[in-house]
Every structure is written in C-alpha cells, then in structure tokens.
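User: These chains co-purify. Model them together.
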Amino acid sequence: MGKIEWAMWANEQALAAGLIYATGGIVGVAGQFRGWQFACFGIAAGVFVCLLEYPRSKRGKGTSVERTGQYCFTVCVKAFGPLTRNYYIRAFLHATLCVPGGFMLATVLGCVCLGIASLIYLTAAIHGEHWEPILPRREPPKRVGDSIKEPPQNPPPRPPPELRRKKADKLEAAAYDNPMSVTVSE
Amino acid sequence: MGNFAANEGLSIFVILVWLGINVFLFVHFYMAFLVDRYYYTRVILGHALSWARAPAACLNFNCMLILLPVCRNLLSFLRGSIQYCSRTAARQLDRNLTFHKLVAYMIALHTAIHIIAHLFNFERFMDSQLMINSSHLPYVLSQIGNNDNRSYLNPIRTNETNPTIVMFTTIAGLTGVVITLALILIITSSMEVIRRSYFEVFWFTHHLFIVFFIGLVAHGIGRIVRGQTVESVKVHDPVECHSKFETWGQNGTDCPEPVFAGNPPMTWKWVVGPMFLYVCERLVRFYRSQQKVVITKVVMHPSKTLELQMKKKGFKMEVGQYVFMQCPSISQLEWHPFTLTSAPEEDHLSVHIRIVGDWTQALYTACGGDKTVVLDAWTLPKVAVDGPFGTASEDVFRYEVVMLVGAGIGVTPFASVLKSVWYKHVQENKNVFTKKIYFYWLCPETQAFEWFADLLQSLERQMNEKDMRDFLSYNIYLTRWKDAEAAHLRVQYEAEDDPITGLKQKTRYGKPNWDNEFSAIATQHPGSKVGVFLCGPTALATALGKQCISHTESGTEFIFNKENF
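Assistant: Joint model of the two components:
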C-alpha cells in the first residue's frame, strides 16, 4: 500500500465515463432526440476516451496489473509521447471533451463523470504523476554451465548422487519419495 | 461431481431464488403499468413508461438487500444461532461479500435500464409540449391541469424549456443525477485494483452510500409518475374516450376531463428496515470500539511482523476469528482487520501484524519498533478493537478430520487453532471431537517461518511428552529458494532437526502434490467428513476447491471453507 496514486482511480473513472458518454450518445442518436448532433459527438468522444484510457499506466510502486489485451493500445498511446504522458494535458483534454455533453440530456451523465475524472487527473498531475507504458520484460539470457548440457534453473536441495544411492535401504527416513526407484548399487 | 452439491448447492439455490425474485418483480411491475389508469401516460410515453418502472421496482428490492450482507455483527449473531441447525447454512454466511457485489452489479444494471428509459420519457414529454396542435392528443393531454397545477399529466409544464433544465429543476431529476453519480464513484473506487492497493480511497468513497440512500428515498417525493386517478377512470374510460379528446368536458359528452395524480413514493417502505439495521450495526461497532483495550506486550519478530498482546474486559472469542483494530493517534477513521492468533483459552488476545503499508508502519513506530529501549506501558498508543467476527475457521472442531492449509501470512488463523487444540488436550476433561489434523504451510521464503516455528516447536515438544505424536501431522513447504540456500540445505540433509525450522519434521521443497495428499487422507479416513480450511490466494483456493469436489473415495466427503480478506 502506501501513498495513493490518484491516476489509478482517475483511469477507472475516465474509462467508466467514456462508456457512459458513448452509451448516452447512442441512445440520443438511436432515439433521434433533439440535439442528436451532440449525441454523435458524445459517441465519438466516449469511444476516444475509452481507447485512450484502456491501457493502464505502470505504477510508481508495486506491481502493475494489465487489462486484457492492452498491449496494442499501450503502443498507440505511447506513440503520442508527452501528449499522453502528461496528466495536465489529459485533465484539460477531458474537461474540454465533456463540455458539449452538457447540452443534451442523454449525454449529461457522461459529461459530469468525465468532468470528475478530469478533476482526479488534475490531482494526479499536481502530485507529480505521469503515464508510463507497461511493456513486456525481456527474458534474462539463460546461463549454461560448463559441463552440464541443460541444467535446471533452481535445483532442489538434494544430496549429491553418491549419497542418494547409498540411502536406498533407508527410504523411510527420506523426506519425500523418490520419483524413480533407487537401487542399492549401480 | 459428488462434492459439488455439498460445497456449492446452497449458494446456487440462493442465487437462483434471488434472480427469480428479480425477474418476477420486473415482469410484474412492467405489466402493472399496462393498465387503463396509465392509458394516457402511455399515449405520450409508449412502453418506455413500463421500461422505467420495472427496473425501479427491482432497484427497490436490491437496494433493500445490499445493506444486509455488510452488517457484520448481525451476521455473526445469525451464524452463531444457525450453526446449531445446519453447518451448511452457517457457511453460506461466509460469502456475504460476494453476495454484496452481485447485488451491486444488479443495481448498476437496473440503474442503466432505468436511466435509458427515462431519457426516452423526457424526450417524449418534451415533444408533446412542443407539437402545438390542438388535434394532437399528446399536446392536448399536456395542457390538462394548466389552471390548478395539480391534476396535470405531463410533468413538463411549459414549452420554453428543455429536458436538461427540467431534470435539474425537478426533485426526481436532481436526486437521480446525484445518486447515479454517487453510485458511479462508489463502483469505480471499488474496482479490485483500487481496493487492494489503496483501501482508504475505497473505504471513504464507499461512504457515499449515505448520499445514495438519502437521495433514493427522496427520489419519489415529487410524484412525477402520473396516471389517471381511480375516480376519474370511473367516469372517463380512456379506452372509449381517447378518440373524442376534442370534446372532453363539453356539454353533452360522457367524457369529462380526465384528472391525473402522481403515485406516492414507495422506496422508503423497502429500505427503511435495512437502513435501521445498518445504523444499529454502526452503533454496535462504535460502542465496542469505545471499550478500553490495554496493550500488555509488544513483540517485534523478524520478517517485519509485529505481535501485539492486549487485554479487553469481557472479550470472548472462538478460534480463527478476526477483529478490526483502530488507533486514534494514527487515524480516526481507519479500521483494519487482523486475525486473532491467540487461543480462546488464553487470558489475553494477540494479533500478528505484517508491516506493509502506511498504517501498519505508523503502528510499528508508535509501539516503539525502531527504538531499542523498552517502553513504559503508558506510552503505548491507545487502540480500539471491534469484534470478534466469525469466519470459517470457527468450524474446525466440528469435523472429525481436518485439513488446514495456510499460505504465507495466511497461516495466522491456524496459529489460534493449533494453540487451542493444545489447550483442549491439556485440559483432559474436554472431549475433543476432532481426531486428526493435517496441517500444510506453504511459504515462499524462510524468514516468514520464525515466529510460527516457535509455536510449532513448543507444540512438537509437548506432543512428544504426552505421547500424542499422531494427532497433528504437519507439512511445511518452501516454495521458493536461492541457490546459496540450496547448497547449505544439501549439506545439512543428514541433520536430525530441519535446518530451517529446527523442527523434527523436515521441510519439504516445492509445492505439494494435492492429488496425492487428498487421496492419502481419503483412504486413511473412509466415510468421514473432512473439513478443508484454506487461508491463502485465490489460485490455491480454486485448486483446492477442485480437489475437494473430485475426491470422493470410499464415501469420504471433503468440505471446502475459504477465508479471504
């Protein structure tokens, strides 16, 4: 635990807001409500916000949990460099995107939720947080021993083979069963 | 398949009943708005009226239910009473948080349907005010009640407005927005990522439920859902008169002007009971927290574990229960759960706290963790304790054969069990139902052993003295080790005592082969009910749950109990 990373909550809130914005927009367009143009904008803005917010940022401290299949989104968002890295810009972006939603009832809820997300992002930015992509770790190169062809990574603690073979008659004293039968002398 | 019914049957039954009630309420209230009283309302709104009222009824039902699973003290009380009748029913109460979340998802779903339907309603009400044409029934209907402002049908009374303004100027609209926002904030801060990492954000935001319930009760005060009054239907039959709207109320017709009224608010009837119970719950928690707790001993263990021994007057516990602790000098509002590691037979209560975050770190400092000099008792911080609350481990002694599996710090409830087992045997007049305990401890690192190893060592010694070596069979599994350690262990293979724990029973390496273990226990104890208790991660719970369900050799039944914080 430790200090809250506000961006994590802002991210969840913004993703939810994007979905609500888009849903409100779809209802407005499908029902052909008055002001359906705002609803169209709501759909576009909602989808855009969802795409932007889907990839989670890497946490400052602790393990980051990815969302399913977020890698391609991470790559896209990362490509915009400082625009997406900086949370002040994101807060401002969400604030501007949410304004047109206030002009039509169907998108009002999306507008307010996105506004709240923008405020939480502002808090995150003030606390000095920024967006980091979660990239897959490169595997460390495997070390190969001199005289051993394919050693296991972590050998279980076991006495050297000579000692083991001699103990065949004292199997009941062993801590665990040997997977293969051990004969007395080979 | 055999154990599936024993393990999951009651849960599935409860869920099906709950879903069934939801479906019934939805359909019933959908149909309730298709009657003649709402004929004219439907002329304007169509079926969107029913689509809004049906989820509203389900929302009433679910908002009633959602407070109940989190009344911990009530559930503890119920659990204590029920378990004399049925152990299965009592175990069902362990899954209260799962049920709380399910009900929350249902509330979110119905809120969405309700809002979308009302979006259509607002739009259609607005349309009927704007289509100014006396030959248009919706417009005519909207003009009714212009004089006295009481018998109107259309809540939008003028055409010089728009739905957004109307929403913010009606009680129903305004409370609707507020409670929906509260709900969305509660849900986003309850996502697992936030909950597990920043519990305080989750806990404080969750208190928006107070705003939610106040708004919910106030939501219907404006009586915005309107239909023809019963008296009006008697004199003005909508089915016959709807086409004669141009001559309503005129001399010679048998269709006087229809009169409309709003429905009284119903939600308070559903939620007032649970709200009262929850208020009682919080009062009980507050009362218990005010009672004096004295820290009698502080022990610093390696591996960043702090042991606190405390005394509280009149405190009674069972094995494996947990308490909530608060330290006002650290934070007035934070209560954190900790498993009790003392046995009921001891005269004090103890908890072992792992130092992982802000609050635990502050507690460590307040108890003098970083000082080397011994602190006086009066300098120790004041703490408050609420509880104890019962969880699955309480049931341990009701089984003849018991499997206890603890992963890492998850072994703490079992510390209490083992101590209690020992005390019960020492007091030989106690007839203990449990005949055999199999204990498995899975640990990723050796450091975590230290304080628990002491307990096991003393138990081992005492069992040898009493010649009861067979009662408890314990297996410690080290799931991760470094190469350097492995070399040392290889050399120490011959030693009598285990090089890590100092116990006679050797530490094992890697993960246990559960299939073998379950089969071995099943063959050793045919025909008995074996209780399997786990305190550990979800992956292990799934694995053990599957093993329980699939091992039914010679009539042995494995019943799975899981604890989780």
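The first strand of chain B starts at residue 226 and ends at 228.
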